[in-house]
Amino acid sequence: MQVAKPKEGKQKKIRGSKNKGEGGGGGGDADDFDAWMKSRQLIKPDDQLDLTEAELGEEVTKVLTPTNTNVLRNLVVFSFKEGEYVSAPMPGNTVTLISFPGNSLHVDSEEARIQVEESDEIGYPLPMPNYSVVEQRETVMEGEEEGEGEGEEDEKSDIGSKHGHIAGEEEEAEEEEDEEGKATEGEAATETEAAGEDEEQGGVQQAVATPGKKRKLINQFNYCERATLTYVNPKRNVDTQTIPPPRSQFGANVLQWVIYDTYMEDYEEQQKTGHIHGDQRRRSTKKSFKKKTALAEQLNRKYVRCWQILERMINQNIYDDIGNDYRYWEDPADEYREGEGNLLPLWKFQYEKTKKMNVTEITFNPSYYDLFAVCFGSHDFLKQPNEGYLCLFTVKNPSYPDYIIQTDCGVMCCDIHPHYPFLVVIGLYDGNVAVYDLRDGCKEPMYVSRGVKCKHAECVWQIKWGPDMVDGEINFYSVSSDGCVFNWILMQNKLWVTTIITLYLENGIADGPDGTKVTLRSGGSCVQFHPTDTAVFLVGTECGLIYKCSTAFSSKYLMTYYAHNMSVYRIDYNRFDSNIFVSCSGDWRVKVWEDMRADPLFIFDLGSAVGDVKWAPYSSTVFAAVTTEGKVHVFDLNVNKYKPICVQAVVPKRKNKLTRLAFNEKLPFIVVGDEKGVTTSLKLSPNLRIMVKPPKKQLYLDQLTLQNAKLEKLLSLVRELPEGSPVPDAATTART
Amino acid sequence: MADDEGGKEGDKKIVHTYPLVKHTDMKEEMRQEVIDLSVSVCEKYSSNYELAAKTIKETMDKKFGIYWHVVVGEGFGFEVSYETENILYLFFAGNLAVVLWKCS
Q1: Which of the residue ranges A192-196, A234-238, A447-451 would you say has the lowest mean pLDDT?
Q2: Burial code of A522-559, b = ≥16 C-beta within 10 A, e = fewer?
Q3: Phi/psi at A539 (5° precision)
Q4: Do A254 and B79 touch (CB under 8 A)?
């Protein structure tokens, strides 16, 4: 609300007072007014002039001008910018005393009318159905009437503000009368205000209850506020004191000479140690490089190990059925076949690079029953490859060899040390021998024969670790086509070779050139050590003889067996009775011999050259042989003395030949090698591994005794008395 | 005095300008980074030590946490407390000393 032009207001007042003073000039309304006034005493200000009637009646002319005479017109302000006084701009005519934006509406205004209509339709703008609230509203209204003269009472606002208070009271009384008039219970209008207030409640109730009454404009500020105080969570402080970071003190003075001296010192130091520094750096870089490579190597090994495990797992999954057969398959047909058995092929082991080579030797590792070494070379002396391999396979991973050793000529034989399962010795086609340590990787041999004299002149046919020497040196024996048996001792840094025996032919002196005599040698083709008497060994020769020799003396044979007509390929001692051994040869024959008996006990003709023969580790009467026809023959002399109990072709007859054979020491399966570089594992059916049942009266006897007894019984049947000598019973049964 | 000596020795004197660490207990990686920073900034603002010090300080605050203090000058003395492993006292360009330390 803007209060503008106070002058005019003043003038009005003056006029008003004049009217009052004049008294009776007013209309009907004025009479009522005067009636009121009489009962009141007018209070005069102290400084009011006392004027006579004439003075009062004097007319004072006031001229209203549109210009404000009080405004300063020549006001100047010093302008620093221009350096002189400049006239200030004229102030406006408007003087703002109070600014109070309100949202009250005049009851007669259009907007108020609309609001009333709306509230009629909708009800109160604020929902207030509560009676007490209505009552409150009315009391508030009372106050408002006095202050602002709003609401219905605005009608009377033209009476003048000085009457406001009285008008308010009057109005209230009027209102009361109004309500009570409508009420069923009539009440005296002359009751006091307080009494009226008391009864107002009832009256209001009725007022609300009776529709049609003109609704009052409500005050939008009139509302009820409700609040609830909720539980205030108590606050708590938790603090911890941490250890402050460590601090140190340092101080120095920076002066030019300090800087200069420091530089000079450092320079001298550098001059002195410059070279050494350089060297050290180079050395350290070298060292660090070595360290790094070593670390990388270690890491690689770990990785390789992980990959190997993964590979094995994959293989196990791929060959799951074979794996189950390998462990658990027992041919049920064997129960109905008397004296016959069969072989179940399991995995085939091959290596990409040895596909066209021959398997020249198979040996199981004595410590790890699943690991076996396979040598790759060639038996065809016209087609010797210029590389050879020794691969160590495990049945746990048929797809790839665990260790691969490559050589520059064919590997003809190998042996794994019985006490140091990581030591592998190989014999090469060129007469050299080499010892590898599998732990150090398979790149370089630990020992290798060097020089012309420290090697065999011809192909090394078989190689065997010997028992350690008296002073603990590791040594091995080798036999070669050049007719020599060598003993090799692993010295600190070289191989020490001694000749054990030279295989001279008896009566083999031929005429040499210029009338000299040449002693003929027979080429050795295989060697086998006696299992119990470590000094005694058998050597098979290319001319079909078997010599029984001793490491103790090099000139004499303990025994000569005229065994075969062609080269003896392999000899094997019986696992239970070391007096019995078996030999095989290119003359198609397999013969079982007894120690110191010139004639064989058994002779079997297998129809083709026999590459290898081995006694079974589990039975004293079972042995197996492989032939160039591609067949595996398994004999059990206890079951059948004349025929093999199993003959099975493993490889095609025309295309391939079997060369070598090995029994697994622990599980009933064999591995056979062929000429195409493939090693096949075969499971022995139950009939091929019949154990001896102890007789009912002697259940306490163990298998070893029983096996010996079985063999002895068998031998006694076939043994013929040698001419003119008694049966060497004591010798053959010495161990039992 | 130092200038006089330098003048007399004129021919002999070799002016070393490489950064020379007089004292530090920083870890190797941090030290190398700080030296590189100090050298590059001092070369950049070779005529305005104030700006050089300010730049080094601000960069250090960003890289290694706040409250670094840097002094760059040709002659001054100092005695400071610092958080251990956070000081570097470095000579550079033959006549300049840079001290950086952290203390919060």
Answers
A1: A192-196
A2: bbbbbbbbbeeeeebbbbbbbbbbbbbbbbeeeeebbe
A3: -125, 125
A4: no
Q: B58-67: buried (b, 16+ CB within 10 Å) or exposed (e) per residue?
A: ebbeeebeee
Q: Quick one: closest CA in A to B89, which residue?
A: A252
Contact A246 B84 (CB under 8 A): yes
- Restricting to A residues 356-375, those with a Cβ less than 8 Å away from any Cβ of B are none
Q: Which of the listed CATH numbers 3.30.950.10, 2.60.120.1440, 2.130.10.10, 1.10.443.10 matches domain A332-692?
A: 2.130.10.10
Of A187-191, A271-275, A376-380, where does the model show the most confidence?
A376-380
Contact B74/A251, CB-based, under 8 Å? Answer: no
Q: Is A245 on the interface with B (CB under 8 A)?
A: yes
* Chain A CB within 8 Å of residue B27 CB: no
Is A260 close to B14, i.e. CB distance below 8 A?
A: no
Q: Looking at the complex, report in whole angstroms how far the Cα of residue B7 sits from the nearest Cα belonging to chain A.
A: 13
Q: Determine the average pLDDT of the residues in A95-101.
A: 83
Strand partners, A549: A537
Query: Is A212 near chain B, with CB under 8 Å?
Result: no
Q: Is the ipTM of this complex over 0.90?
A: no
Q: Which of A190, A196, A182 is nearest to A138 (CA)?
A: A196
Q: Rounded distance, CA A116 to CA A105, Å?
A: 11
> Closest to B97 (Cβ–Cβ): which among A247, A250, A254?
A254
CB A476 within 8 A of CB A482: no
Residue A558 pLDDT level (bands cut at 50, 70, 90): confident
What residues form DSSP beta bridges with A540?
A526, A546
Using 70 as the pLDDT threshold, list the residues of chain B that sit under it. Answer: 1-14
Q: Which of B1, B75, B82 sits opposite A247 (nearest CB)?
A: B82
| Statement: residue A201 has pLDDT above 80 | no
Partner A contacted by B81 (CB < 8 A): yes
Per-residue pLDDT at A583 exceeds 90: yes
Judging by beta carbons within 10 Å of its beta carbon (0-12, 13-18, 19+), is residue A730 exposed, middle or buried? exposed
pTM here?
Answer: 0.52
Closest Cβ opposite residue B94 in set A245, A248, A263:
A263
Q: How far is A269 from chain B (nearest CA, A)?
A: 13
Q: Is the pLDDT of residue A142 over 70?
A: no
What pLDDT, in 10s, does the model give residues A9-49?
444 444 444 444 444 444 445 455 555 555 667 788 888 88
Nearest residue, CB atoms, A252 vs list B14, B84, B89: B89
Least confident range from A170-179, A330-339, A446-455, A538-547: namely: A170-179
| Cβ of residue B19 closer than 8 Å to a chain A Cβ | no
Q: Is the pLDDT of residue A198 over 80?
A: no
CB atoms within 10 A of CB A645: 23
Helix (H), strand (E) counts: chain B: 3, 5
Residues 6+ apart with CB under 8 A from A462: A413, A427, A478, A479, A524, A525, A526, A527, A528
Question: Is the alpha carbon torsion for A646, A648, A654, A656 positive or negative?
Answer: negative
The mean pLDDT of A388-417, rounded to a whole number, is: 89
Q: Note whether A631 and A646 are within 8 A (CB).
A: no
What is residue A584's predicted lDDT score, i.e. its pLDDT?
A: 92
Element (H, E) at A716: helix A703-718
CATH class of the structural domain B20-102: alpha beta
A254:B94 CB<8 A = no
Helix (H) or strand (E) holding A267: helix A256-318
Helix (H, G, I), strand (E, B) or coil at A706: helix
pLDDT tens, A251-297?
Answer: 888 888 888 888 888 888 888 887 665 566 666 677 777 888 888 88
Hey, where are the domains in chain A? 332-692
Domain boundaries, chain B: 20-102
Rounded mean pLDDT of chain A? 77
